[in-house]
Amino acid sequence: MQDSFVANRETKLGRIRDRGIDPYPPRYRRTCDNARAIAVFEAVEAESRPAADAEGLSLAGRIVSMRVMGRAAFLDLQDASGSIQALLRKNNLGDGFELLKDLDIGDHLGVEGSLIRTRTGEITLDAARAVIIAKGMRPLPEKYHGLRDTETRYRQRYLDLIANRENMDVFRLRSRVISGIRRFLDARGFLEVDTPVLVPVAAGAHARPFITHHNALDRQLYLRIATELYLKRLIVGGFDKVYEIGRVFRNEGIDQDHNPEFTLLESYEAYADYNDVMEMVEQMISRLAAEATGSAQVAVGGQVIDFTPPWRRVSLREELQRRGGIDLDACPPSEKGAGELQRRAAALGVDTGIRESRGRIIDKLLSALVEPHLTQPTFMLDYPEEMSPLAKAKPGAPGYVERFEAFACGMEIANSYTELNDPQTQRQRFEEQEDIRRLYQDEEVDRLDEDFLTAMEYGMPPTGGLGIGIDRLVMLLSGQRAIRDVMLFPQMRTLPG
RNA sequence: GGGCCGUUAGCUCAGCAAGGCAGAGCACCGGACUUUUAAUCCGGGUGUCGUGGGUUCGAUCCCCACACGGCCCA
Question: In this predicted structure, what is the pLDDT of residue A467?
C-alpha cells in the first residue's frame, strides 16, 4: 500500500514535533516571490541595485526536487511565480541542518539568506535559516514525466497544477479573458448584475434543466439554463446596458465541449440591434485575444485565426444553399413536419430523427455542412424564426429573424439577436414552441415564462442581446481541445466505493 | 445510446501475442558525499495487476459482465 509512504512521513513529522518545531506554523512572512527575487538579483548583478538588496531575503515554496550531498543540499522551491534553488549547508545552518533529514518533496519550506550565483550559474538562495512551513504527507507525481493520467488530472486538479506547471497558464489566460470582458463592458457603460440561479421557470434557451426543491416554500425550482429573461426584465426596468457573467446549468451529456455547468456571458443593450452587437463582439474578442495571447492572431491547431475586425459576414440561407444545395425557402414549414427538408437532409447523409422539428433539422444541417467551414471568425446571419423564439423578425424577410451566431475554428463563440420586444408576438412564439414540444416530444424547447411576458407588456425598448460561452472562447484562445481542459473542476462520475 | 482503446508500485510505463515465482526509471528506505540541477555511487521492490464471475492443475495474460477514463460516432 501507499501507507509506507505516509508512514515514512509520519515518522518524520513526529521527529520534527519532538524537536519542538511546529510543522504547520500559522504564517510565514516572505520578502517577495521567487520570480521577483531572481529579478532583484539580476538587477544587483547589473549594478542597477545595491548589493544589499540580495541579502537577508525570506523566500518560500513547495520543495519540488532535492539534491542532497551529505552536509549540503540543493532544493528547488516552487511558488506561483516559479522556482528558485535554495542551498542548505551545515556550515550555515548548524543544528538547523538536522531538519533536512525530515524534509520530503512536497513540503513547503521557508528559507532566509542571501542570493548567490552558483558555480553552474544558477541563482540560488544560500540559506542561513530554513523553516518547515507545511509538511506534505503524500508523495507527489513524478518530476520528469509529470502527471499524464487524464482521470487523475481532472479529479485531483491540484496535482495537475503542481506537476504540469504549464496548465496553470490556461487558467491564468481564462482569468485574463474574464477580467478583460468586465473591463471592456464596464468601459462601455454596462452594469454588471446578478440574477437568480434558482428559478421557477427554466426558460431562455433550448435545454433540459436540473430540478431541485425548496423546502420552506415546498415548491419545485430549477437551476437556470440562461440568464436572458431576467436580464431583459432589467431592460424593461430601465437599465440601458446590463451584463452578467454567470454559471448556467444544462442537464445534458458530457463530451469534448459540453459540461453540465458552464460560464455564460450575456449582455443586453437598449436601443441597439444585432448589427451594433456584431461590431461590439468583433471589437471585444479581438481585444481579448490580444490581451490574453499577445496578438489578435491566434494559433489554433496548426492554423492562425485572425480576430482583427471586421469579420466576414455570411447569410445562413446562402451558406446552406452554397454548401448543401438546400434552399430553405423552397422547403417551408409544413403541417406534417419538416417534409421536404427532412428528405433533403437524409439525401445528404445528415442523420435526422424520425420526427424532428424543422428548426432541429436546420440546426443539424448547419452543424454538418456549414459550421465546419467557418474557420476564420465569421458571423452567420438571419436565422429561421422557429430556431429563435426570442428574436425579432427581420423586416422584408418573412420567416427569418435578426439573429447571428459567430464562429471561429468551426466552433460557435457568440449568439445574438435583435430582441423581440412585442409581447403579443412573444406570447405567440412561446405557444408555438409549446406546440412543437408536444408534437415532437422535444423537451429541449423554451418553456413559457408568464412573469417575463408580463414584464414585456410594460414595454421593453428595442434591444440588442448577446450570449458568449466563456469556456469555449477560452478553449479557442488557449488552443485547448476539450472543455474540461479549461475548467478547473470538470464534472466526473462518482467513483465506486 | 453505439464502436474502439485503456486501467499493472506513489508517478511514468514494460510484461500478456504463445497462461507457469510481478518488472524498469523516477519517487521512497538504509549508507557515502559541502556547488548540485532528471546530481552521483553502493544496497533494498514497497503491488488487491480496476471489480466480480468463468475456463484451467495453474490467470496480470484467455472468456463474460460491470465500473471508471479516453477517442470516434449518434
Answer: 98
Whether CB of A135 is under 7 Å from strand B: the answer is no
In a domain, A229, yes or no: yes
What CATH number does residue A279 fall under? 3.30.930.10
Last residue of a domain, one of A140, A159, A188: A140
Which range has the worst mean pLDDT, A149-153, A343-347, A364-368? A343-347
Distances from the Cα of A396 to the Cα of A317, A380, A422, angstroms? 14, 18, 18
Nucleotides of B under 7 A from a protein CB: 1, 6, 9-13, 25-29, 32-40, 46-48, 67-74
* CA angle A364–A366–A369, rounded 5-degree value: 105
Cα torsion A386, A241, A232, A419 to 10°: value is: -20
In terms of residue numbers, what domain contains A458?
Answer: 167-311+376-485
Query: CA at A1, C1' at B20: how many angstroms apart?
Result: 26
Close Cβ partners of A390 (under 8 Å, ≥ 6 residues apart): A204, A228, A417, A419, A420, A426, A429, A446, A465
A188 and A117 in a single domain? The answer is: no
Same domain, yes or no: A258 and A194: yes
Instruction: Write the ipTM.
Output: 0.94
Do A382 and A449 belong together in one domain?
A: yes
Domain assignment present for residue A337? The answer is no
Residue A20, CB, less than 7 Å from strand B? no
Could you tell me the distance in Å between the CA of residue A492 and the C1' of nucleotide B12? 23
pLDDT at position A66 is 96
Residues in Cβ contact with A295 at an 8 Å cutoff, skipping those fewer than 6 apart: A289
- Assigned domain for A344 exists: no
CA of A218 to C1' of B63 (A): 53
Residue A123 lies in a domain: yes
CATH for A12? 2.40.50.140
Instruction: Tell me the residue type at A398.
Output: P
> How far is it, in rounded angstroms, from Cα A435 to Cα A356?
13
More confident residue, A353 or A322: A322
The total of structural domains in chain A comes to: 2
Q: From residues 218-277 of A, which are strand B contacts by CB within 7 A?
A: 253, 255-256
Task: Report CA A282 to chain centroid distance, whole Å.
Answer: 19
